[in-house]
Each structure stands twice: as structure tokens, then as C-alpha cells.
Amino acid sequence: MVEVVYDEKLLIHFFQDSLSDVSFTWYMRMDNTKIKKLKDLVDAFIRQYKFDMDVAPDRSSLQAMEKDNKESIKEYTQRWRETAARVDPPLLEKEMINLFVNTFKAPYFEYLVESFAQYFYDLVTIVEMIKQVIRLGRVADSTEKKTFPFFDLQLKFPERDSL
């Protein structure tokens, strides 16, 4: 294993294998003629992604997150949890649950608010159950507006002259 530490080409290859998504695309589009050593690659990577180190997520950015339409509940939960792990100071379990619940819209939000999950993993299980119940049609997807019956009442007020 000691020989590998000094093999620059192999280390660059390992670095490339560790990339995914946007960072991999950046690597593939990069001008390889400027990369002679692993240090050159590391410096280029830090220049490109330093803003991620400078702009750490906070509690308000967690609460502003939303599940993408194409994203499964598990994918969203994982993305949210990975972001939450970067918040400093670290979140308490109860705070993490409250922030996560507030990222959901109806009908999830209504049921999650009523849940008494003490641990984050319990909350994830509840979200999965809500999704399954909606898919089975046992709970209506309440994206349509709900109205209350008392809005239809015609209230009659006495006229000014009769007072």
C-alpha cells in the first residue's frame, strides 16, 4: 500500500472515482493539460468548490428546503439529513424533527404535526406510511382548497337607521 501513496497518476484516478454528479461533470470538462500532480488537481477542486466550505447551511436554509417532484421520500430525507449534518452548531434531535416537519406541504404536514415522533428515524417511517396511505387512496391528497361551511352563511346586520 505504501507504493500507492507515491503514485500520482493512481491517486488522480482515485480522486476522479470519488466524484459524482456536478463535481464529476466539472472534472470531465476541466483542462487536463494543467494537471501535472495531485496537488494541482486538489487546488483546482478547492478553487471550484470553496464556496461550499464558506457557505455552510443554517437552520433557516434547512427549513426552506423542499422535496423535488422527481425525488422520492427517501432521497429527499437523505439529502435533507446530509445538509442538516453540516449545520453548526449541531441540531438537537427535537429541533431536527421540527425543522424537517416544516419542510413538508399538505397533506404530509398536517399528519406530521400531529405525530409524536421522538426520533428522526421514527419521523421518516411516518412520512413513508403517509405516502403509502395516500397512494392507496385512503387519505385524499388535500391539495384542493378546503372551505368551511360557515363561509356560506349570509350574515345580516341591522341597518344604521334602525338603531
Structure explained in plain terms:
This protein folds into 2 domains: 53 residues, no CATH class; 77 residues. By secondary structure, it is mainly α. The chain is elongated and about 60 Å long. The protein has 9 helices and no strands.
Report, as a whole number of angstroms, the end-to-end distance.
97 Å
| Domain tally | 2
How is the biggest beta sheet arranged? none
* Strand residues, percent: under 5%
Number of strands: 0
Uncertain runs are 144-157
C-alpha Rg, in Å?
26 Å
Can you give the mean pLDDT?
Answer: 81
SSE topology string: HHHHHHHHH
Shape: elongated
Label the structural class: mainly alpha
Can you summarize this structure?
55% of the residues lie in helices and 0% in strands. It is mainly α.
SSE inventory with pairings:
Blueprint: H1 2-5, H2 8-17, H3 21-29, H4 38-54, H5 59-63, H6 73-85, H7 93-101, H8 108-114, H9 120-135
Key features?
163 residues; mainly alpha; 2 domains; 9 helices; 55% helix; 0% strand; elongated
